[in-house]
């Protein structure tokens, strides 16, 4: 039996299976959702989907999923983008997250100067709020989920 401590959540595996099935279908390979779940179970070192499901079935749902689209606020400005890097820390109490924004955001509020960012790296809690705060006490980054 395989034991892994950093398995994705059940919802993350199912979402990955849907994306895989859609990609395979676009290439002309038609497989069932069950077959994609079996493929992902094998990739994680399990004999079948039932084994993988048993290993991840009772864990709390992860608030963030690698590759998912998110929206929120960064330095008070609205943002949207994709999670391109995700590290679970402190047993899921915090997450180190990197976002690739759909559109660059100006991180400077001074009128005669601009600094645009397309990528953001931050540490956030399960609620999506960063530990780092702005001068007015609000989180630098807040991600809706």
SSE map:
Elements: H1 10-26, H2 33-43, H3 49-56, E1 69-74, E2 77-89, E3 94-106, E4 116-125, E5 141-144
Antiparallel strand pairs: 1-2, 1-5, 2-3, 3-4
Helix pairs in contact: 1-2, 2-3
How is this structure best described in words?
The chain is of the alpha+beta class. It folds into two domains: 10-56, no CATH class; 69-144, no CATH class. The protein has three helices and five strands; from the N terminus they run H-H-H-E-E-E-E-E. Strands 4-3-2-1-5 form a five-stranded antiparallel sheet, with no helix packed on it. Strand 1 (69-74) and strand 2 form a beta hairpin. Helix 2 packs across helix 3. It is elongated and about 60 Å long. The mean pLDDT is 87.
Q: Can you list the strand order of the major beta sheet?
A: 4-3-2-1-5
Domain module count: 2
**Major β-sheet profile:** 5 strands, antiparallel
The rounded distance between the terminal residues' Cα atoms is: 34 Å
Envelope shape: elongated
Query: Which spans of ≥5 residues are poorly predicted at pLDDT below 50?
Result: none
The whole-number mean of residue pLDDT values reads: 87
Strand content: 25-35%
Strand tally, please? Answer: 5
Percent range for helical residues?
Answer: 10-25%
Order of helices and strands: HHHEEEEE
Structural class: alpha+beta
Number of helices: 3
Radius of gyration (Å): 18 Å
């Amino acid at each position: 039996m395989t034991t892994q401590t950093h398995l994705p959540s059940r919802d993350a595996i199912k979402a990955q299976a849907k994306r895989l099935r859609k990609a395979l279908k676009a290439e002309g390979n038609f497989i069932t959702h069950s077959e994609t779940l079996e493929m992902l179970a094998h990739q994680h070192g399990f004999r079948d989907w039932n084994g993988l499901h048993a290993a991840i079935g009772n864990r709390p749902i992860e608030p963030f999923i690698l590759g998912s689209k998110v929206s929120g606020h960064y330095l008070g400005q609205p943002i949207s983008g994709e999670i391109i890097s995700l590290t679970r820390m402190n047993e899921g109490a915090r997450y180190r997250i990197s976002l690739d924004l759909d559109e660059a955001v100006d991180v400077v509020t001074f009128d005669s100067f601009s600094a645009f960012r397309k990528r953001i790296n931050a540490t956030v809690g399960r609620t999506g709020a960063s530990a780092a705060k702005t001068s007015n006490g609000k989180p630098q980054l807040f991600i809706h989920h």
